[in-house]
């Protein structure tokens, strides 16, 4: 099995996680992965139902969004993903969803404050808002990169659009998308009850360090 064939299977499987955790509806959202050792990425095709997203449906493009392998047109967010890979070499996976609570924060143009240890653990501080940008070119990608540079967050809430997450692998980016929706929902509930106090920065730093470097097997 070639590298791209194996990665196409992985990316297809990861799209099932988006529906499992109810982060997308209909054909919205996408997962992509950088092809190791090549200037290529695997991404979901445009407008294809999730129940049809097997490995053969995945497409391979270069890092400027040009189709290299596949029968379908790439996702409408391909240029944004490609821009991220060109400008953030540490990123090997990008995910976009329209998960309801995170997207509600994006609609408000309001960062999610770091009021939970889970936010400190996974995102290293508040979850920032990126600029409004139109779909179709690399404008969204530019906004993602500009917002996440200088931030420990693996998530950005693109204003009036929705969340994007990045990670050292496509699976880790999906994990961040799942956790983002969970904390977006919980903080929303907390604010309905009253004020939520941010965690002090030195505690955020310790929590982030522990979770990123000690937690797990």
From TrEMBL:
The keyword Flavoprotein does not apply. Its cofactor is Zn(2+). Pfam families: Aldolase_II. Residues 9-188 form the Class II aldolase/adducin N-terminal domain. Keywords: Metal-binding, Zinc. It catalyses: L-ribulose 5-phosphate = D-xylulose 5-phosphate. InterPro entries: Aldolase_class_II_sugar_metab, Aldolase_II/adducin_N, Aldolase_II/adducin_N_sf. Its EC number is 5.1.3.4. Gene3D superfamilies: Class II aldolase/adducin N-terminal domain. It is an enzyme of class 5 (isomerase). Belongs to the aldolase class II family. AraD/FucA subfamily. NCBIfam families: PRK06557.1. This is L-ribulose-5-phosphate 4-epimerase. It comes from Lentzea rhizosphaerae. The lineage of its organism: Bacteria, Bacillati, Actinomycetota, Actinomycetes, Pseudonocardiales.
